[in-house]
Amino acid sequence: MAGIKNRVKSTNDLELKDRLVAINRVTKVTKGGRTFSFAAIVVVGDEEGIIGWGLGKAGEVTAAIAKAVESAKKNLIKVPVHKGTIPHEQVAFFGGAQVFLKPASHGTGVKAGGAMRAVLESVGITDVLAKSKGSSNPHNLVKATFAALNELRSPFMVAQNRGISVEKVFKG
Length: 172
Fold this sequence. Notes:
Blueprint: E1 17-30, E2 33-45, E3 50-58, H1 61-74, E4 76-78, E5 90-94, E6 97-103, E7 110-111, H2 114-123, E8 128-134, H3 138-150, H4 155-162, H5 166-171
Parallel strand pairs: 7-8
Antiparallel strand pairs: 1-2, 2-3, 3-4, 5-6, 6-8
């Protein structure tokens, strides 16, 4: 994820909710037998445009989740959510995963599956059409979805850059 531009500075006054995306059990074989450890990927968000993801690894599931939540709180980004959907279409890649996000009209719901659904619901998007192509690896899907959300530009930002009013952005 080259150049995260929408970083959130402080997490003190945010009410973040965490969602577990995936748990992976890893086995290490030693001469004494098998040793199990767990890796958890978690998405946190305030459902109002702020979101972060984290990865935690530990010998116990609860410890891995706790580490993932702490990691997620350290890399929060701000996403422009406009009337419950995204402002424009966006495509992003990460590893073998490709995601496509498209705005949807009110009442459509979140048309996405698995890891993408957890990310989009945590950010507070209520209406969106999403498609994932390529890898279905939850780690790569979460990172590709974050890359897509991080590239979104708000209508206000577009209007300011063009030097026109927000109404002209939607009419043009």
